[in-house]
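Tokens as discussed.
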């Protein structure tokens, strides 16, 4: 009930903000700040509800692997690492030979800053499922967190090769270049990948983002259009073209 009331309040406030021509500038700013605060509170409430539902399901059903993994993901997103750690311990106890149990433990240890422990856990996951792209991706995150950019970049490329449609690896590789302010290198990375693997939609989109950041408007538009040629409903590319004042 509370969530419904909050939704309604946000809707009403946004309606008033749209009528900003009738309001003083200071009043508009106050309304926008209030809307942002309420939206943040609404998102937190939804996460807390989802986490509570997950934990109740686990208590009712018992140590179910799939529910446990979903719960742990939800708890990590809502920054409830202690509860997620309890679930990880349960999964390791009940499913010690499932790579996902060790992968979850690696993610928790990475979140806590225990990089050695995280690497030990992800290596155990790798022995159980060596070709899994999530295992490779997590290894990359651990190396990146330790400042080992080249090792991380190599692993992110491997993750992309395994699952070309998985956005986190593209995002992580982009971040490595961005942290070094090497935007020319970022452009070269995605240009090389689009030439070698022209059907990789996310490589074209990443190239568009890199070119746009460099101020190469026309080239960025071309890259976004290549994205849409391969995935006509790509929301990111459509929004980018609108942002650049171009038609799809």
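Sequence:
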């Amino acid at each position: 009930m509370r969530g419904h009331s909050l939704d309604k309040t946000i809707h009403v406030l946004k309606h008033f903000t749209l009528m900003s021509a009738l309001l003083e500038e200071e009043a508009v700013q106050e309304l926008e700040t209030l809307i942002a605060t309420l939206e943040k509170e609404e998102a937190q409430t939804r996460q807390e509800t989802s986490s509570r539902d997950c934990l109740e399901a686990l208590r009712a059903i018992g140590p179910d692997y799939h529910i446990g993994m979903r719960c742990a993901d939800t708890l990590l997103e809502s920054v409830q690492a202690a509860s997620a750690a309890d679930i990880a311990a349960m999964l390791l106890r009940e499913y010690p030979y499932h790579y996902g149990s060790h992968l979850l433990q690696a993610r928790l240890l990475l979140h806590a800053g225990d990089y050695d422990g995280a690497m030990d856990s992800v290596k155990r996951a790798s022995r159980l499922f060596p070709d899994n792209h999530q295992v490779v991706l997590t290894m990359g995150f651990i190396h990146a967190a330790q400042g080992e950019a080249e090792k991380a970049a190599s692993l992110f490329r491997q993750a992309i090769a395994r699952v070309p449609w998985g956005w986190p690896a593209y995002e992580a590789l982009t971040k490595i270049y961005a942290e070094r302010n090497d935007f020319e290198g970022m452009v070269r990375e995605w240009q090389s990948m689009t030439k070698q693997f022209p059907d990789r939609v996310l490589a074209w989109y990443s190239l568009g983002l890199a070119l746009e950041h460099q101020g190469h408007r026309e080239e960025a538009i071309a890259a976004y259009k290549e994205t849409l040629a391969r995935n006509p409903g790509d929301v990111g590319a459509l929004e980018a073209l609108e942002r650049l004042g171009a038609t799809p």
